[in-house]
Structure prediction request, 400 residues.
Amino acid sequence: MRRLAPMLLAALAVLAAACEKKTQPAPSGEGGPQAAQGQEAAGGAPVDANTILLGVVGSLTGGQATFGISTRNGIELAVKEANAAGGVKGKKLAVRVYDNQSKPEEAAQAATRLITQDKVVIVLGDVASSNSLAMAEKAQAAGVPMITPSSTNPTVTEKGDYIFRVCFIDPFQGFVMAKFARENLKLDKVAVLQDNKSAYSIGLADVFNRKFTELGGKVTAVESYSQGDTDYRAQLTAIRKSQPEGIYVPGYYSEVGIIARQAREVGLKVPLMGGDGWDSEKLFELGGSAIEGGYFSNHYSPDNPDPRVQKFIADYKAAYGAVPDALAALGYDAARVAIAALERAKDLSGPAVRDAIAQTKDFPGVAGTVTLDANRNAVKSAVVLKVEDGKTQYVTTINP
Prediction:
């Protein structure tokens, strides 16, 4: 037994180190926290009594990494601006960021750690609805308010009265593209290719199918794939046989770009349509010329001349060297809604902060004016963008 003890202790030490590494904040650099005024970058280090800690969970690595990085950057920018203006209630703001690796189980663990160990007053995140659903259960049970910047599946906020969002929801987004397909593109027949493991994709597809049919169109085929697949030719060939005039692909950029290329390979020349999951620079790298002429619904357009939007774009470019996408804009708006609520709240307890967030009305966001309804969802318009010449072009705005 004595001879086995050192080996056992060594094994336990390795296991403990592995567990600790798994839940650490993302490292500095690509996908990790970056130095920003007011950000708490030290993993797990306590903050002092003069600091208000916000928690952030995002997909900083994995299949939706560009979503998480953009969102985190937008949140950081909002916190930096708030601290430069004096902070909240005489205190500075800090954020602690954890990477969920684009996995729901990791998102749930990260949310739990933020709530139980870091003692954050608000949780911000995620983008993917499946991840936010896993986080929402933890936040609701603990009575800690959570704001998702861009999870559009309706069931996220249905988890409870502590869960909010600053984006529109899938029933509206699905309606937007159904209406656009029928009335703007004048399409009579459309096929659908959905991700059957994504709550986001299934929700959008269901609404699109119903609304497009109600508007007098016909859905010629519904085919499915699973996130991470690389060969979609069988589904696309079946879709081609149904002779659609367009294809609705409500997935994420990581698959949509490849789907676009393979659609052209099997002879499908019709326009592709989708949702805000397309919004990434990686879409153009993955899809190349095959994605040209596609359309997707989104939360904002960098072409918006509003001075508030253009200032945000200029500040973001100065900080991160890129034009912000919609995920960055929504991260920025979510953080600003949270900060405004902290200012209004009578104290920093969960119920007080929850009540203050629920009062959000006519908030001037860069991705649209935010008013939260009785179900804690944002009521706002959507834009439709066209992929043209390797970038997006604003086409139209569709209101609720």
